[in-house]
UniProtKB/TrEMBL annotation, chain A:
It is an enzyme of class 1 (oxidoreductase). One of its GO terms (molecular function) is glycerol-3-phosphate dehydrogenase (quinone) activity. It comes from the Archaea. Pfam families: FAD_binding_2. The lineage of its organism: Archaea, Methanobacteriati, Methanobacteriota, Stenosarchaea group, Halobacteria. It comes from Natrinema altunense (strain JCM 12890 / CGMCC 1.3731 / AJ2). This is Anaerobic glycerol-3-phosphate dehydrogenase subunit B. Its EC number is 1.1.5.3.
UniProtKB/TrEMBL annotation, chain B:
Residues 437-487 form the BFD-like [2Fe-2S]-binding domain. Belongs to the FAD-dependent glycerol-3-phosphate dehydrogenase family. GO terms for cellular component: glycerol-3-phosphate dehydrogenase (FAD) complex; plasma membrane. It catalyses: a quinone + sn-glycerol 3-phosphate = dihydroxyacetone phosphate + a quinol. Pathway: Polyol metabolism; glycerol degradation via glycerol kinase pathway; glycerone phosphate from sn-glycerol 3-phosphate (anaerobic route): step 1/1. GO terms for biological process: glycerol catabolic process; glycerol-3-phosphate metabolic process. This is glycerol-3-phosphate dehydrogenase. It is found in: Cell membrane. Keywords: Cell membrane, FAD, Flavoprotein, Membrane, Oxidoreductase. The keyword Flavoprotein applies. It is a peripheral membrane protein. NCBIfam families: glycerol3P_GlpA, PRK11101.1. Composed of a catalytic GlpA/B dimer and of membrane bound GlpC.
Amino acid sequence: MAIEDDVLVVGGGLAGTTAALAAAERDVQVRLVSYRQSTLRNASGLIDILGYTPAGDGPLVDPFEALDDLPAGHPYERVGSEAVREALAFFDGIVGDAYAGAHTDANALVPTHGGTVKPTARYPTSTAAGLASDDRDALLVGFETLPDFEAPLAASHLEAAGAPFTARGVTVRFPGIGRDDAKVTRYAHLLDHDEPVETPAGETTAREALAETVRTHLEGESRVGFPAVLGDDRADAVRADLGDRLGVDVFEVPMGPPSLPGIRLEDLLYEALEAAGVRVTTGVPVVDYETDGEGADATDPERIDRVVVDRNGAEVPHRATQYVLATGGLVGKGVQSERDGVFEPLFDCHVPQPADRYDWFVDDVFGDQPYARFGLPVDRDLRPLDAADDPEFSNLRAAGAVLGGYDFAAEKSGSGVSLATGYVAGRRAAEGCR
Amino acid sequence: MPRDTGVLVLGGGSTGCGIARDLAMRGLEVTLVERGNLTDGTTGRMHGLLHSGGRYAVSDQASATECIEENEILREIAGHCVEETGGLFVQRPEDSDEYFQEKLEGCRECGIPARVLSGTEAREVEPYLAEDVARAIEVPDGAVDPFRLCVANAIDAENHGARVETHAEVVDLLRDGDDIYGVEVRHESGPGKRTHAAPGTTEEITADYVVNATGAWAGQIGAMADLEIEVRPSKGVMTIMNVRQVDTVINRCRPKGDADIIVPHETTAILGTTDEEVPDPDDYPEEQWEVDQMIDTLSELVPILEEARTIRSFWGVRPLYEPPGTGTQDPTDITRDFFLLDHADRDGVAGMSSIVGGKFTTYRAMAEEIADHVCDKLGVTASCSTADEPLPGSENIETLEAGMDDFGLRSPVARRSMQRLGSRASEVLETDEPNPVICQCEGVTRAEIRDAISQSGSDLNAVRIRTRASMGNCQGGFCCQNMANELHPTYDEETVREALDELFQERWKGERHALWGEQLSQAMLNYALHATTMNRDRDPASATGDVDFAAFDGGRAASDRVDGTRGAD
C-alpha cells in the first residue's frame, strides 16, 4: 500500500520546510521526507536576501530595490519580487521574536567570526546588539579553546572594514571547559543549565563565572560579543542573564559549522512543521520514482505518480498529487557530479553545464565560478525544465539550492532564495491539489 | 677582497638544503638563498617515494645501487620523515614475464632485498589489488615527506651557523671577467612573506664560491652569466586521493610508462605520474587528460580508484639534464643520474658549479659529492658527516617511542603529531596553554602551528608544509582561517588577512584538478563558508571605497538598549 498525501516535499532544509509550511497553510495534507542532515546546521542562521548584485555591486543597503534588475533565469526573477516580500513576511510569522530586522527594508551589517561584516535582511535576535551598522563601542570576547574566533583579530578587522565604533578584543579561558577539544554544544549546555564550575575563587555557576571573567576586561563598552555558543535551548535566558550581570547588551557572533544559530533555526522550523500538522520522516532517501505515463496528449509533460522511499531497506511507495524537490545544491547533494558530468540524482532533471569539466571553474578562488551556479533551470511556476525548455514533469516543482542560475555565496542570497522559492513552490503545489 | 660568505648555495630544495647542511657541518660559512619557500620547486612537488632502487634495477643499475644505499641511510638519519611502507612491483596478465624476471634479478644484483609473492599473497598484503594481478616482487620502497626532510636539512644547516634566506630571488650573478663572485637577490615583498631584509630591496651577496642548485631553473641562472646549461625540464602530474587505498607502494612491473605508481602518504595516497618535456619550468599546461590517465590506468592495478575521491592534483618539473649532443628524444629515456658542472672546466668561468639531474632519494649523496668538490676548490679538508648524524627531530626516536607521552591530546592526534615532530615532540607540544586542534583532517594542534610560525614567519604556505595543516580532505576550507588566527597578534591584521588569502588561493589551485564528485561538493562548501558565512570574497576591509554604515539597519530602537532609556530606568 502506498503512503498517500496531497503534497510531498523532498528535502528538509530551509527551502523544504518553508515549502511544507506554505502548503500546509492551504489545508492540504503535506509530508516532508529528508535523508541527510540539513545543511542548516552548517549555516550561520542569518537570513540574507541579497547583499550584492550578480555584478558584485554592494553591499546593498536595500536588497528589494535590486531584485527587479536580476537577469532572466535567476530564481528571484522567476518568482518575482512581490513573492520575495511575501515569503519573508511568512518567515517573520513563523520565527516571531527569534529574529529581528523586519522593521526596515534596509540590510543590516552583521560581524562575522572572520572579522568582516556581512549584509543580511534578518538576523537572529542573539546577534541583534552586535550589528556593525550600530555605532556603539563593542568588546569582543574569544575563548582560548575556540580557535575559530580570535577576538582581538576580529576587532582589528572590523576597524579595517571602517566600522563606525571602537572594537576591542580579549581572549579568555572559558570557565568550566576542561577539554581543549570540547564541542560548541558543550559550551552551550554549560550555560543553558548554569552548571556549577570550579574557579580559583571557589565553586560558582557557569554564567556567573563567565561574567566575572569578562567584567575585568570591560572598559565602558555597552555591548559585549561572544562566539555563538551562548546556550542552545535557553539562549535568550543565557544572554539576558549575562547582560544583567555585566550591565551591557550581549550578542553572539555567528560561527562556522556546527553552528548553534543554524541549529536553533532548524529546531524552530521543525516545531512549526509539527504544529502545522506536516508529517515528517527523516533519515530516509528517495530512491526511485514512477510516472503514470504520458500526459493528456503527447506534448504534455509526464506526471509523477509516486516516489519510492527506502525505509531501513524496505522500499515504500509514497504517492502525492504534487511534489516539491528541495534537496539542496552541491553541498546538500541535491546536485551531484562525476568526472564527466553534473546531474540531479532523484529525477534526473536537466542540469545545464559546460561539457568540459575544466570549464566548470575559473582560476581565482573568489572569481565568477560557473560551478557555483550549477542547478536546475525552472519556469515561472518553478517546474524544472528539460534541455528543450519544456517542463520535465507537470507536478514537480523545485526550490532552494537545487536551483541553478545564481551564485548564493557571492550574492549573499542563499536563505532568501530558499525562502522565496520554497514559499512559492509550496503554495503552488497546494493550489495544484485542487 | 673579503666576501660576505664562504659558500653561497642557490636553491632551497632538497639538493640545496642538503649541500648547505653538509658544508655547514664541515665548518664552512654558508648562505642559502631561495626565491620562494623551501621546497617550492621540484622537492615539494614529487610523489613522496623513497626509492628502494627497484625502479632502476633493470635500466640503470648504478642509480639502483645508490638508491638502496641512501634509502638505508635516510631510514637512520631521518626516521621521522620516512614511513617504511614496503613496496610491490605488480605484474598484470598482459605484462611481460621476461621483464618480471629481469627486474627480480636486477634487484638482487644491486643488493635490493626482493621476494616474489603470488597474486594471492600480494592481495593478502594489499586487499584492493585487482583480482587478476598475477604476482609481485616485494622491495623495501618507502614513503618520505619531502617537506619535512628538506626543512630538517635547512634547520640543521642553521644550527651549524648557516644563513637561510627564503623569498630572496636571484636577479643577477656577479661576474668579474671570468670569475663569478656572488649574486644579487631581490627580497620579496608582501605580507605573506618572511623577509630578514626590508621587502622590495635588493642585496648583493658575495662569496668565495657559488653552487647553483636550482634544478630545473639552473639554465635560467646560468644565462645570467652567459653560461649555457642544457636542462630538459619534464613535467609530471601527481593526483592525491582522500584516503590510503593502499598501505604499500604499488609499482607497475613493466619497462616504463605513465601512471605506474601509487604511494601511500600520511592520510592519503598519491598517484603518479607523467613525463613530458616542457620549455619553461614556471609556465606549462596542467591538463585534464593527465589526471584522467592517472585514475584510468592505475585503476587497472587498484580498481576502487575508479570510484574514489581525489582531493587535488599537482605537477612537478624534473630537473633532467643530458650532456650536449646526446639528443635523447623521449624524456623518459633521459638519465636520472646527476651531473656536476664545474664552469671553470667547462666554460672557463671560475667560482661556480652547477648541479643538475638527480633524484630526491639520493639528494644526500649528491650533496656529499658536491661538498667534496667545493672543499677541494677552497682547499678545505673536512670530511662529510651527514650520513651519520641524525637530522633534527630524528635523534633518539626509539627512546622517544618507548616513552611516548600523549601531551593531553586525543591519541590519534598525539600519534600523528609525534610522527611529524619526531624527537622534537615534547619540546613543541609540552605547554601549559590550551592546545586545541587547528586542523581536524590532519590532527595538527595550535602548539605545532605556532612552532612552525616561529620558524617560518607569516607565510602560511610555509606553515602548511611543516605541519600538513590544510592538506587533508577539506583542503583548508575549515582550517585556513584558524591557521591565520594563530598569526595574530605577532603579525598585524592586514598581514594575517593577506596571508590567509594567499593560502586559500594556493589550496584552490590544486583542488581545481579534482573538481567532481565529493570534492566538488567540498569546494562548494568551502566557498560557502568563506564567502557566505564570512563574506571574505567581498570583505570591506580589502575593497576599495568605503561602506556607508549609517545607511544600514542599525538594529533595535535606542529604548531597547542597555545604554538607552532601558538602561536609564
